[in-house]
Design brief:
With about 90 residues, the chain is an all-alpha fold. The protein has one domain.
Length: about 90
């Protein structure tokens, strides 16, 4: 292997070491942001606004409720992925 190739491999290894150190901290910060009390309040407001907009647009209340529940389910899926920190859908247990 040429000296230049060795230098590139060392540089890539160094970059990956830095990334490995930084990614867990970034995921923890993201999780803490998503699961804060303020985030919960914002999600509640968003779901309420979504429901009200559906009803005001003429969607029957029971259908709007089902759609709002589906919306919450979608949010839960995203939040669960963030909570697992990128474990690619594997549940701990």
């Amino acid at each position: 292997m040429s000296e230049h190739g060795h230098s590139d491999a060392a540089e890539v290894r160094e970059i990956l070491d830095v990334v490995a150190d930084k990614i867990p901290a970034l995921l923890n910060q993201l999780r803490n942001t998503l699961f804060s009390a303020e985030a919960g309040q914002e999600i509640g407001r968003a779901v309420g606004a979504f429901y009200r907009e559906l009803v005001e647009s003429g969607i029957p209340a029971d259908e709007a409720l089902a759609m709002a529940k589906s919306y919450i389910g979608s949010l839960e899926g995203v939040l669960n992925q963030a909570k697992m920190g990128g474990h690619h859908g594997h549940k701990e247990g």
